[in-house]
Design a protein that fits this description.
The chain is of the alpha+beta class and 86 residues long. The chain has a single domain, classed as Glutaredoxin, CATH 3.40.30.10. Helices cover 38% and strands 19% of the residues. α1 links the parallel β1 and β2. 22% of the residues are buried.
Amino acid sequence: MSLEVVIYGSAGCHWCKVAKDFFDIRNITYKYKDVTDPLNLKEMLEINGGQKAIPTIVIGDHFTICANGKKLEAMLKAAKGLGAAD
């Protein structure tokens, strides 16, 4: 099952790197969208309710504004139909 993961962030953002590392270590493909591009910023704000916070991470139909490994693991499980994203 292919799962779409998108990370909205910017260069120099420590937590954005943490988020990318989380997915890289697990060999999970993701799209990275730099929010210094106005179109990417607009898209991110529409997804996360207008919060100017990065990283905003979208997994399937859900999003979070954090790079917490436990939260991301729960979201991955939920997106794959293996449990709830608490």
